[in-house]
């Protein structure tokens, strides 16, 4: 999946912005992996319902901002 994401990113951004776009995609991929471990520890400690509500409230706040 990773090569196709890079290809799509290069297709949708101009040449002078493509390196920045690819870097953002790469950092986002690694950040998602890192946050996965953090979320698993929160879910294990507090329960899945609390984690679900916390993430929902966060994205509602981001959506309203």
Structural overview:
This protein has 65 residues and is mainly α. The protein has one domain (2-64). 92% of the residues lie in helices and 0% in strands. The chain is built from three helices and no strands. The protein has helices spanning 2-12, 15-46, 48-64. Helix 1 crosses helix 2 (15-46) and helix 2 (15-46) packs antiparallel against helix 3. The longest helix has 32 residues, at 15-46. It is elongated. The mean pLDDT is 85.
Helix content: over 70%
Looking at how many chains there are and whether they match, the oligomeric state comes to single chain
Mean pLDDT: 85
H/E element string?
A: HHH
How many distinct beta strands?
Answer: 0
Roughly how many Å apart are the termini? Answer: 32 Å
The DSSP helix count reads 3
Structural class: mainly alpha
Query: Which regions contain 5 or more consecutive residues with pLDDT less than 50?
Result: none
Largest sheet geometry: none
